[in-house]
Amino acid sequence: MKNTYLIIAVVALALLLGQTAQAAETNCDKYGTISAGSYIIQNNVWGADTAQCITFTGGTAWTVSTSAHNQGSVAAYPSIFRGCHWGNCTPSSGMPVVVSQVSNAPFNFSVSSARPSGDYNVAAEAWLSPNSDTSGGYNGGAEVMIVLDYHGMYPAGSQVGTFSGHDVYYANVGWNFVTYVQTGRNSASGNMMDFINDAMSRGYVQSSWYLHVMEAGFEIMSGGQGLSCNSFSFSVSGGGTTSTTSATTSTTSATTTTTSATTTTSATTSTTTSGGGGCDCGTCDWYGTNVPTCCESCSGWGWYDGGCRRSCVCPGSCPGGGTTSTTAATTSTTTTSATTSTTTTAATTSTTTTSATTTTSATTTTSGGGSCDCGTCSWYGSTVPTCCESCSGWGWYDGGCRRSCVCEGSCPNN
Hints:
Layout: H1 2-23, E1 25-27, E2 33-36, E3 39-42, E4 52-58, E5 61-67, E6 79-85, E7 88-89, E8 97-98, E9 102-104, E10 106-111, E11 118-129, E12 142-151, E13 158-163, E14 166-172, E15 176-181, E16 187-191, H2 192-201, E17 210-223, E18 228-234, E19 237-238, E20 246-257, E21 260-268, E22 283-286, E23 289-292, E24 301-304, E25 311-313, E26 334-336, E27 340-350, E28 355-362, E29 376-379, E30 382-385, E31 394-397, E32 404-406
Parallel strand pairs: 12-15
Antiparallel strand pairs: 1-4, 2-3, 3-6, 4-5, 5-18, 6-7, 6-17, 8-17, 9-19, 10-16, 10-18, 11-12, 11-17, 13-14, 14-15, 20-27, 21-26, 21-28, 22-23, 24-25, 27-28, 29-30, 31-32
């Protein structure tokens, strides 16, 4: 009888050890994934060719079991996600979903307190874009990141404010990259919609966009071997009615002429900067498009102008030095071409901070002989031409039309 009990005990121990061994799974492929019920764990070595492995230990727990990275930029973002990451979707997530239809998006993320050597952060993030299909990425959309801790790695862009105990940073990297930063934390939980709504109030997200995915893990530049996620959860539920932008565009008439082109723009702004200054700091003739000149110090263009919450051109970046206005600005340009068309378009866009009316007459043609009037896009408070020629992104020069424009698929209202 004792021998029978011993055999049963040995078999039970063997079964237990077999189950434990089966639960642990390691993947070292560059873009390797491991299924974890309603979630997917991804190795996601998108910025390097150095070795990295992830090991799944059960539930939603996993660890960076190997990391040979040693560089000054992000090598990888090993993470766990729910939703659709670059076309790879977890089961029954309810995403993608239109932002205005989401009222609650609770998340919980917990990591080990161990901080191995290297440069990395501990971060969770949501991805949003104007398109429902994520197989091509999120260009023209937004990445809303919550940083719990960072180790030798700092947020991109510049600080634009604070929110709920977090420092808020912004950079445009082909999409709006908004980072909510704290440090020294091993866990975070709350409603992701609180952060998304704050990003919306700053003009970085639109209520008509899609929420695609929530991810949590570690952005690694170097080292990081031994970083561990203890648990992660995320879900979405409906009922939201958030809206920040309404736009109406009407085309009234179109005729054909053989003479010239005239553009007239009138804009009135009645907001103040975050520092209390006025938002009327002149305009810039950006290759045929009248764009506000930024009131706050910056470099480049397309930046959101502090409290004015608009796209603008930094003063030193305007071709020819730009123009100056007081409250209302009018610019008139005349050119000549052999064959032209005239179209009058009236567009009205209203947001919480800016009211603007733009009237445009265009009489040029593309390099292929087509019309340059392909409509307009309300680009966060600025009315910008929609590109007539095939392109991606925005701010491209539109072939023979010679102007900056927004590619059709990148307009936030499309």
